[in-house]
Amino acid sequence: MSKPRILVVEDESDIRRFIRLSLEREDMTVFEAADASQGRIESASRQPELLIIDLGLPDGDGKDLIRQLRGWSSAPVLVLSARDREEEKVEALNAGADDFLTKPFGVPELIARVRAQLRRASIVTSGGPASSIVRFGDISVDLATYEVIRAGEAVHLTPTEFRLLAALIRGYGRVLTHRQLLLDVWGPGYGDRPQYLRVYMGTLRQKLEADPTRPLHLVTELQVGYRLAGLSN
Q: DNA-binding residues per UniProt (predicted)?
């Protein structure tokens, strides 16, 4: 099996070296770029399977680089940034990023985020699961028949609840912003009604999580959106 190819676009050499050494210890091949211009060149020539991009680059905003990459690349993008405002995170995700990590960060979290994105990309590029059934925890969901089973028992979901769950499954591993989910599930005109999400996510957790107050699968990214965790291949 070939090593995953990772491109790190980061202007601080110490951070690039830290990331490179951390990922190389996990048997990954790492390429580096110090600015957006070099990042565009390296991404085109190296064809990385995942990109790690800093938002504060010397020759432009990392969000602009992500938008440009999304014109031709579907490789997962993990954003690194010292900017911790929720608006920055939402803008990066809406630009096409898949996940974000706020500086400073630890090696275990970095590795976990990278591996999660590589797993998701593998599922997508292989055409997804062989059948319409997906599983996470003790839950199985049949996307064709709309059947949901938890611990061997059928679970009734309303049509809206099922559309929300299906949207999370389609975006597995990604942080999906409130606006992305609202437009996907409810359609145009609902992008600024996050209260809809709170209500329906609450009912989904009541039906699917062992402890709805501490969800393991329907995970909140505070003030940004939600992600589905723990999907089985």
A: 131-230
